[in-house]
Amino acid sequence: MPRQAGRHFLQIPGPTNVPERVLRAMDMPTMDHRGPEFALLTLEILKGLKQVFKTSADVVIYPASGTGAWEAAMVNTLSAGDKVLMFETGHFATLWQVIANDLGLDVEFVEGDWRRGVDPAEVEARLSADENHAIKAVMVVHNETSTGVTSRIGEIRKAIDKSGHPALFMVDVISSLGSIDYRHDEWGVDVTVGGSQKGLMLPPGLSFNAISTKALEASKTATLPASFWNWQPMIAANKTGYFPYTPATNLLYALRESLKMLLEEEGLGNVFARHRRHGEATRLAVRAWGLEILCLDPEEYSAALTAIMVPEGHDADHLRKVILERYNMSLGTGLAKVQGRVFRIGHLGDFNDLMLAGTLSGVEMGLAAAKIPFNKGGINAALDYLTENP
Ligand SMILES: *Cc1c(COP(=O)(O)O)cnc(C)c1O
User: Fold this and answer.
1) What is the strand order of the sheet 106-110 is part of?
2) Which residue lies with its CA nearest to atom 6 of ligand 1?
3) CA pair distance 43, 26, nearest whole angstrom
4) CA of 328 to the centre of ligand 1 (A)
């Protein structure tokens, strides 16, 4: 491909744009991960991470992508043949179910149409019907990155409580951590699974488990094999600021910097409000274009990304190709079931009004260039909203 001048617009919903200062924070000599300086770095990061998860419980950090932290959540708490309840909200929920199957768990997978989040009433009904408490865990994706639908975790917690069922509650926040409000303690989540490369504005390579006392208790009797993922040696070593094996030291420098930006300089409340505002502006543009938002329930619109359907007979991947070639912008592809039918605009991470204006301009020009029928003026609708709602 010929060189494209100017900055590339990386508007996929993760990995997201990494701020320059986070990149610079990583540009450090490798440190002795058994030395005293390193212990201080770990302890500072663990303190900040707890604030992001809104928990006082243990949080562990793996040198792995988010998928590793999913596996960790299961192998630490469950035993072969255990029944688990999962919901087909989209591609990521489906992948989580594949891991559960691979590990020998017995998955009750509630089918979905990829346009809605998890229905709390359905959770309550399934758990209430499970009188013998065969279900050991309920696993939900908070922000389904393949569809732009955010499930209501607080309401799902209430549904579990209403059923009186003792199952563990596990939630994937890989694309919502640091972009959408999330409360591990308040929502009574037992294992929260996070990742570095989305709302936290870091390169890929770190993932997290936030672990409730109940989950820690379950880990003492769980029999799925866990070695690399085992929580116990990790938590024990973390107490003094160390790891049982070599941590991703330079990514931890980056994490310290991003935590400082999110918690101290911008404030989590402001970070979430910024994402909500960009989500709203994006949806106003989509409606003005006359295109359809994949998410059906306005209560479940994602603040992190918007998945948009192209009209019947048109190919969303062709549109993405035209936009990449002409305007040097990457948009998210339609994954699996919605391949070619949907494209996704990521508006999460290190992102501001003018970046959104550029992103939406690229989409509007791309729609015309790809000869997809649409109405002009989406950008204006978004800009008006941003101007009127500073
Ligand atoms: C990105 C993502 C994953 C996958 O994480 P990897 O880091 O690619 O392993 C899982 N769940 C959700 C919701 C995601 O957005």
Assistant:
1) 58-62, 207-211, 191-195, 168-172, 135-141, 83-87, 106-110
2) 66
3) 18
4) 24
Nearest atom within ligand 1 for CA of residue 95? 10
CA atoms within 13 A on the CB side of 96: 33
Residue 1 has pLDDT above 90, yes or no: no
3-state SS string for 291-335? CEECCCCHHHECCCEEEEECCCCCCHHHHHHHHHHHHCEEEECCC
Structural domains of the chain, with CATH:
9-16+267-388 (3.90.1150.10), 20-264 (3.40.640.10)
Per residue in 212-271, pLDDT (tens digit) is 999 999 999 999 999 999 999 999 999 999 999 999 999 999 999 999 999 999 999 999
Output the CA 297–ligand 1 centroid distance in Å. 23
Q: Residues 310-368: pLDDT tens digits?
A: 999 999 999 999 999 999 999 999 999 999 999 999 999 999 999 999 999 999 999 99
DSSP state of 109: E
